[in-house]
Design a protein that fits this description.
Number of helices: 10
Number of strands: 20
Shape: elongated
Radius of gyration: 23 Å
Largest sheet: 6 strands, mixed
Distance between the termini: 68 Å
Strand order of the largest sheet: 4-3-2-1-5-6
Length: about 375
């Protein structure tokens, strides 16, 4: 990779080359912002092994690789399988093939005269750390957390475009699934059909394992689809997302099979009221805690505070769960370019549950909802005997 002629402590002056297809200077800008964070931590190198962080910084999508980011250069270390792919996907990085990864890291650090080296303390195992420490005694190892993840919170227009594509795929798949949701269909069959529909519409894969839970199973926030057959009166919670261009979407809708009873309508109305109020509260300058409190107050005043036991939402990007968090402990301030979910729920053991979730972009003057599926309570097959 080209050397960085940046003057230490005086802002950004990094002549990194441009990455075709991602806009001028996108990789350059990320690396320069990362360098500022490295300076604040007083480290002269950063080892990046996390797959999402590695992809975010370099563009490399392979499953084996390590980034070595120093004050003057950036290298991507990988094995024989990925050398050619790495050269195509990460043209701004010096690609180095290794037979033994620890030896390659050692060579890169010593070659650049690194002395204080950061690593992803929340991602690297103790076993891996011990190997590095034993093999590379010349450096001081420093566990750091969140350096790259903090950069990832603010999405570039190109990233937002991929997330919107993923959200559109999920919206379209859900609308096609609805006619198939009839008494006698199983949770497992419907989840498989939903995955097929998203893939057929262009998804590269699932953002996460589909949650599709009917009847009493809908009271389990992270239920796995099983053999239960849909029955009249069942609430059905569907939480799913597509992956497009490496980026995720995330949405939840709840429907009822047949006519809804009064308890179902009450639960749905409370959750929808809370969700809409929380959506209105999403804006730059708000903390995740403040937005969470809007929905939580409505659900608590309705008498179901104990049945809403999870956070209101989370960031979405290369990973389906990332910062910032909308929760009682969410202290990060929302900023334009963040993409978050808003997903309150109520779960009644033995009866079922309701969750409604949208994907939301924080904008300069508020927010924009990226999920477009209807939130009207759908009574599927209510007109059938």
């Amino acid at each position: 990779m080209r050397s960085c002629n940046r003057k230490k402590g005086k802002g950004v002056n990094c002549p990194y080359s441009m990455v075709v297809g991602w806009g001028e200077g996108w990789i350059m800008d990320k690396l320069c912002r990362l360098h500022r964070k490295m300076e604040a931590k007083a480290i002269d190198a950063l080892i990046v092994t996390g797959s999402e962080n590695r992809r975010y910084l370099s563009g490399f999508t392979g499953s084996a690789g390590t980034l070595v980011i120093t004050e003057t250069a950036a290298s991507l270390l990988t094995d024989f399988r990925y050398v050619e792919q790495a050269a195509l996907e990460a043209p701004d990085f010096e690609i180095k093939r290794y037979d033994e990864p620890v030896a390659a890291i050692r060579e890169a650090l010593l070659e650049n005269k690194c002395r204080r080296v950061g690593f992803e303390g929340d991602l690297v195992t103790y076993e891996q750390y011990a190997k590095w420490q034993k093999a590379i005694e010349q450096v001081e190892w420093v566990a750091v957390s969140g350096l790259v993840e903090e950069l990832r919170m603010i999405k570039e227009p190109e990233e937002i475009a991929e997330i919107e594509k993923a959200a559109a795929i999920a919206d379209a798949a859900w609308s096609e699934l609805l006619p198939k949701m009839v008494p006698g269909a199983s949770e497992r069959e419907l989840a498989l059909e939903l995955e097929f529909l998203m893939r057929r519409k262009g998804a590269n894969g699932l953002a996460f394992d589909i949650i599709l839970a009917a009847g009493p199973n809908a009271a389990l926030p992270h239920a796995k689809p099983g053999d239960r057959l849909l029955s009249r009166g069942d609430l059905v919670v569907m939480d799913f997302g597509a992956r497009q261009g490496g980026y995720c979407s995330d949405m939840t809708r709840t429907v009822v099979i047949g006519k809804a009873c009064q308890q179902t309508r009450n639960l749905y109305d409370i959750v929808l009221k809370a969700q809409l109020a929380a959506l209105d509260a999403v804006a730059p300058g708000k903390t995740g805690q403040e937005v969470d409190a809007v929905a939580r107050q409505i659900i608590t005043e309705a008498g179901y505070g104990e049945q809403f036991g999870h956070g209101l939402g989370h960031g979405v990007g290369l990973a389906v769960h990332e910062e910032p968090r909308l929760s009682p402990k969410g202290d990060k301030v929302l900023q334009p370019g963040m993409v978050v979910t808003v997903e309150p729920g109520i779960y009644v053991p033995g009866f079922g549950g309701v969750r409604i979730e949208d994907l939301v972009l924080v904008t300069e003057d508020g927010h924009r909802v990226l999920t477009h599926s209807s939130k009207e309570l759908l009574e599927l097959g209510a007109d059938q005997v």
